[in-house]
Design brief:
This protein is an alpha/beta fold. 35% of the residues lie in helices and 16% in strands. The strands form five sheets. Strands 1, 2, 5, 6, 7, 8 and 15 form a seven-stranded mixed beta sheet that branches. Strand 1, helix 1 and strand 2 form a beta-alpha-beta unit. Helix 1 runs parallel beside helix 4 and helix 11 runs parallel beside helix 13. It is globular and about 65 Å long.
């Protein structure tokens, strides 16, 4: 079956939904949002900490936020992208509030701002300790109430459509590649439908699920990045995988792991060994508020030195009622596993959290494939450089969604639907009865990535990962050609592609920079 939409959006987090609302406001055509599962399930909803923007002009300004971002990114962030996001932040916050998102305020009506690692000022807007869920809630309500937006839940994007599907040989040097839509797996029929579009937006989120333990939901398998890579679009900076320093250590709940927000360290939380010793003074003068790459490596090192499964975060010195007020969900979660955070240390461990790289886009969020845009965690705008500054991701998604919408609305009228696109051909394939193999291979990808492409790397480990991923790739592609497409095998293909990209680009970077730390090219004195 073929469907036609002027604007096709693959993904349903803050990036995809804010773009949809911007485009819908212009009344220029039909809009479709493709949701891999339900509208509620997205990386956005799992972001508890907050969203960064300069709002308190008495003490803060754009130059401070820009400098903090460049420092955290190890000075390889794109200055133009940084300035675009930082200066566009206040307008993005205004949009979110207009769409119904609530941020905590003080009694005088001003935003109740937090401070997080790497920030020189209090500039983190939040909603208790479930900010992402509140943003997701507000945007979902606005999207569902908009009659110009069709939502396709539990639909899986298999491939984007380019000249390749018209029988034209395409390579990474092919000029003027174009996207004509996407092939989408329909759960009701088990068939793959053709969604033709004038413009397509990738908003598929991150890649955390390619690791054995992650704060991301299980759906974060890097689908958009993998699809664009297969279509010969440019993917950049994949070696920069951010490991959040403080996921709750709970062996019974590894995927997704529960995130202990960075705001808790901004609140005054202190990192300690289980015996109470502080250790961050050995690594950075900013102590527990150092940027995430430094803190994660420090924790990893201390765990290895002392043979620990975790370190601890201490807020027992803070007022108990204030702690419960600021972090009600964390308090309840820890209490559910027998830890009263007002009296006991929180066991924490680094965990795969955020992809700083992704689909390379320009300041308009357009990829190297014409008519294909990417926004949010699946994109590489250049904002994050070698390491994302805490809470910059949500504001990046809103600002770049706005940039994409403005650019798209200025050019979409010149595009037409490509009626020559063939329907998906699955003739000769059989039903997939090999789910046990697929499930096992997914686990193996996670083990490979966590063991060999983690916080600390080496060329030997990376080459070992490459060899094992290559074998899985060959086996999976052979299976994919023989069976009908299902979400399971499509996810596995994408995970392998993403693991390969992270590994290859890590091998290509002959230095330790930002989140990419290799013992073959050490940089920091303490290593």
């Amino acid at each position: 079956m073929t469907k036609k939409y002027d604007f096709l959006i693959i993904g349903s987090g803050v990036a995809g939904m804010s773009y949809a609302l911007k485009v819908a406001k212009a009344k220029k055509g039909k809009i479709a949002i493709i949701c891999k599962t339900t509208l509620e399930e997205a990386n956005t909803a799992k972001a508890p900490g907050g969203i960064a923007s300069v709002t308190n002009l008495l003490v803060d300004n754009f130059d401070k936020h820009i400098e903090d971002t460049m420092i955290a990114g190890d000075f390889i962030s794109d200055p133009e992208a940084v300035r675009q996001v930082v200066t566009g932040g206040p307008a993005g916050i205004k949009d979110l509030v207009q769409w119904g998102v609530n941020f905590d305020k003080k009694e005088n009506g001003e935003f109740d701002l937090h401070r997080e690692g790497g920030h020189s000022e209090f500039r983190i807007l939040h909603h208790a300790d479930d900010t992402g869920a509140e943003i997701q809630r507000g945007l979902m309500e606005a999207v569902r109430n908009n009659p110009d937006i069709d939502i396709f839940e539990n639909h899986f994007a298999v491939e984007i459509i380019t000249q390749h599907h018209l029988g034209i040989r395409v390579t990474r040097r092919t000029p003027d590649l174009e996207c004509f839509g996407a092939y989408i797996l329909n759960p009701n029929t088990g068939k793959i439908d053709t969604f033709l579009s004038k413009v397509t937006l990738m908003a598929t989120g991150g890649t955390g699920a390619v690791y054995a333990t992650t704060t991301n939901p299980n759906i974060a398998t890097g689908d958009g990045i993998a699809m664009v890579h297969r279509a010969k679009g440019k993917v950049k900076d994949m070696e920069f995988v951010q490991f959040h320093p403080t996921a709750l250590y709970n062996p019974a709940e590894r995927h997704p792991a529960y995130l202990i927000t960075e705001a808790m360290r901004g609140y005054g939380g202190i990192l300690r060994l289980p015996d109470g010793q502080e250790f961050m003074q050995k690594y950075d003068k900013r102590l527990s508020l150092a940027p995430r790459d430094i803190v994660a490596r420090a924790i990893d090192r201390e765990m290895k030195i002392h043979g620990l499964d975790h370190v601890c975060l201490d807020v027992t010195h803070k007022d108990a009622e204030e702690t419960k007020h600021h972090f009600p969900n964390i308090y309840a979660k820890c209490l559910s596993i027998g830890i009263d955070i007002t009296k006991q240390y929180i066991p924490v461990v680094p965990c795969a959290h955020y992809m700083c790289g992704g689909i390379k886009v320009d300041l308009n969020a357009e990829s190297t494939i014409h008519r294909l845009y990417a926004v949010g965690e699946c994109s590489c705008t250049g904002l994050h450089g070698g390491n994302r500054l805490a809470s910059n991701s949500l504001i990046e998604a809103v600002v770049y969604a706005d940039a994409a919408a403005k650019h798209v609305l200025g050019v979409a009228d010149a595009y037409t639907f490509n009626e020559a696109v063939p329907e998906w051909n699955d003739e000769g394939t059989m039903s997939n009865e090999e789910r046990v193999l697929i499930a096992q291979d997914k686990l193996e990808v996670g083990q490979i990535m966590s063991n060999y492409v983690g916080i600390v790397r080496s060329d030997l480990r990376l080459r070992r990962a490459w060899t094992r991923l290559d074998l899985l790739y060959e086996e999976t592609e052979e299976l994919f050609k023989r069976v009908k497409a299902t979400p399971d095998i499509c996810e596995l293909r994408n995970m392998i592609n993403v693991g390969y990209l992270i590994t290859r680009q890590a091998l290509e970077r002959k230095e330790s920079r930002g989140l990419h730390y290799t013992v073959d090219y050490p940089k920091h004195a303490y290593d």
